């Protein structure tokens, strides 16, 4: 009876080994790929969400990761950029913090910049797939603009190897 139980256990373990050895690891390109999921207004703040994949899993930065090229004066200090656009005279325009009412804005374009935390998984397969939801506060729109009733956003994600994702856009958001 012991031999029979041992044979059954051996066959069962062999079956499990064969099943799991057939599973291929998930693979994605090493550059992040993002896809728009949605936007929800919550009063003056809003939540924008998108999905992402990254083949080598190097999304996000550690808090202490501030040496070049991730120092505070570098473009790569932040790894997520959300650009703000307003509809003006039938065209999308990168909105500025000081619209000023003239053709020569005196301020930089409005960009929501974020520094995502390190998301690299442990284990042998580093490929990542997931969803990111960002709360834009205190305002998701420019409260001093006369054109903030029709807006949209573009999103760019950057990994630690400084690979840029595709740029995605939200659809028209009517306030």
Walk me through the topology:
Elements: H1 2-21, E1 33-42, E2 45-54, E3 80-88, E4 91-94, E5 111-114, E6 128-136, E7 150-157, E8 168-169, E9 173-174
Antiparallel strand pairs: 1-2, 2-6, 3-4, 3-5, 3-7, 7-8, 7-9
- Per the CATH scheme, the topology name is Immunoglobulin-like
Query: Quick one: biggest sheet?
Result: 6 strands, antiparallel
**Count of individual beta strands:** 9
In round numbers, the mean pLDDT is 87
Second CATH tier, the architecture: Sandwich
CATH class: Mainly Beta
Q: Please name the fourth-level CATH homologous superfamily.
A: Immunoglobulins
Percent helix among the residues? 10-25%
End-to-end separation in angstroms reads: 75 Å
Write up this protein.
With 175 residues, the protein is mainly beta. The chain has one domain: Immunoglobulins (Immunoglobulin-like, Sandwich), CATH 2.60.40.10. It is 11% helix and 33% strand. The protein has one helix and nine strands. The strands form two sheets. Strands 3, 4, 5, 7, 8 and 9 form a six-stranded antiparallel β-sheet that branches. Strands 1-2-6 form a three-stranded antiparallel β-sheet, with no helix packed on it. Strand 3 and strand 4 form a beta hairpin. The model is unreliable at 102-106 (pLDDT under 50).
């Amino acid at each position: 009876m012991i031999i029979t139980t041992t044979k059954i256990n051996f066959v069962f373990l062999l079956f499990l080994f064969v099943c799991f050895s057939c599973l291929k690891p998930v693979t994605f390109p090493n550059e992040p790929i993002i896809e728009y999921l949605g936007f929800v207004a919550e009063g003056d703040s809003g939540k924008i969400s998108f999905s992402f994949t990254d083949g080598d899993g190097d999304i996000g930065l550690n808090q202490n990761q501030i040496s070049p090229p991730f120092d505070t004066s570098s473009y790569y200090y932040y790894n997520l950029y959300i650009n703000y656009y307003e509809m003006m005279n039938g065209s999308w325009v990168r909105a500025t913090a000081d619209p000023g009412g003239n053709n020569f804005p005196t301020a930089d374009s409005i960009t929501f910049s974020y520094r995502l935390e390190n998301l690299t998984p442990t284990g042998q397969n580093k490929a990542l797939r997931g969803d990111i939801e960002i709360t834009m506060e205190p305002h998701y729109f420019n409260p001093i603009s006369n054109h903030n009733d029709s807006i949209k956003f573009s999103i760019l994600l950057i990994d630690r190897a400084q690979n840029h994702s595709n740029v995605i856009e939200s659809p028209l958001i009517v306030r």
